[in-house]
Input
Amino acid sequence: MLIDSHVHLQDIQSEKVRASLLSRARGLMVGKFVCNATRPEDWPLVRDIARGDDRVVPFYGVHPWFADKVATGWDAELERFLSVPGAGIGEIGLDRIKSEINFARQTEIFHRQIEIAGRLARPFAIHCARAGSDILGILKRDLAPRQRFMVHSYQGSPEMLRSFLDLGAFISFSWKILSRGTEETMDLVRQIPLDRLLLETDFPYTQPGKLSPEANVEDYFECLVRIYALAAQTKGIAEEKLQDAVWKNGTVFLSGTAAR
Ligand SMILES: [Zn+2]
Output
């Protein structure tokens, strides 16, 4: 079985495309989609998609790009959405590239979501853009014991990778990072213990920095299949073995805390 560890199904503009993607995925043994919201406005759609398909795991959260747009009470609303068992928190994090979004505000929103994740024992997904040391500082101080979390579309240094792994992180590689095939990225993939690796399409954001409005089902499956093949090749193991490992990692990640 394949898991897509980070995807934004709600951002596929055409409902028909989304439906056909989910239906085609059955034949291709895609058993889980971790569907990340980015702001309160898309939480209802993420919830509806997840209600309609039990392979879709809803993640609700405020992405740093929207940190300055949320209204008072967003956090209570988030907890209401999280009342569904199995729902996680994402996509959350910090972004120093988007310097127009006040960094103190980003930090406040991120911090609040880490607190909720710890209290409700929910897994969370991190977006980290040139803010690795800020995020590590917060996690070292405030991460709940045995908390499960993942860093999505990892592209930091090997040293930072070590620090995230020490905190118990799962590390996810996206198509847009892996497909560049740089030696640095491949080395990172080799360094990750097999029991911490996740893989994702980040669809429909498969091109760096932009939404693909013409996103189609063929693109999606090409991404997903190629990313597994590339990771197996880089790790030097059989594809089936890699698929089993990533599937198991996804299950562990989604369990929220080690205690459960
Ligand atoms: Zn994303």
